[in-house]
Each structure stands twice: as C-alpha cells, then as structure tokens.
Design brief:
The chain has 114 residues and is mainly β. 0% of the residues lie in helices and 50% in strands.
Length: 114
C-alpha cells in the first residue's frame, strides 16, 4: 500500500535551516507529482510547494518563495524540502502528499522559536 513517511522536523531558531524528507513506498514514485503541505495550530492546511514527477517543474507558495527549495531523488523514492531563513510563522506540522489520490504522511513538526 501507499506509504509516505516524513522526517527531519525539529526546533530551530529564527533564521535557521531544516531539511525535511519524505520517503515513499508502495507505488512507482517517479510517475507522480508530489507536494508539501503544512498546518499551523488553528489554521487550515496549506500547500507549500509542489514538484512534478521528474523534478523539472516546481511551484512555491508566495510565503516561502526564495527561502524553501523542493527537490526529489527518484532513485531513492524520496522528496525533500530544504527550508532556509526560517521564521516563527513557518511553525507548523509539515506533510507530504502524493498528487492523484488522497495519500498523506503522518507529518513532522517544525517549530521556529528563539
């Protein structure tokens, strides 16, 4: 079955960096566009970034453009989110999702605080 497992979250100071990973299994990873979402306390889940199946086309929410980089390694069935210049408002649970189908990971907590 489809499985998505996020890792790499944690506590970081403002201005710091984190690199999230999403390990995929149970489907042919290289055929699917993948996305990162986040959900802050009391807010709706929002799309952060998206990458097409071969990693050429990307999309970023305005709030993270220029600071976050989405990438993937199809040989490792893994997607990444490099987060730089982190701000307190980036604090949220981050989820990976496979486009085409309602498949989500369990999420990884990112907390940006001094």
């Amino acid at each position: 079955q489809v499985q998505l497992v996020e890792s790499g979250g944690g506590l970081v100071q403002p201005g710091g960096s984190l690199n999230l990973s999403c390990a995929a299994s149970g489907f042919i990873f290289s055929l699917y566009t993948m996305s990162w979402y986040r959900q802050a306390p009391g807010k709706e889940r929002e799309l952060v970034a998206r990458i097409n199946n071969i990693g050429i086309s990307t999309y970023y929410a305005d709030s993270v453009k220029g600071r976050f980089i989405i990438s993937r390694d199809n040989a490792k069935n893994t997607m990444y989110l490099q987060m730089n210049s982190l701000k307190p408002e980036d604090t949220a649970v981050y989820f990976c999702k496979r486009v085409n189908g309602d498949y989500w990971g369990q999420g990884t907590q990112v907390t940006v605080s001094a």
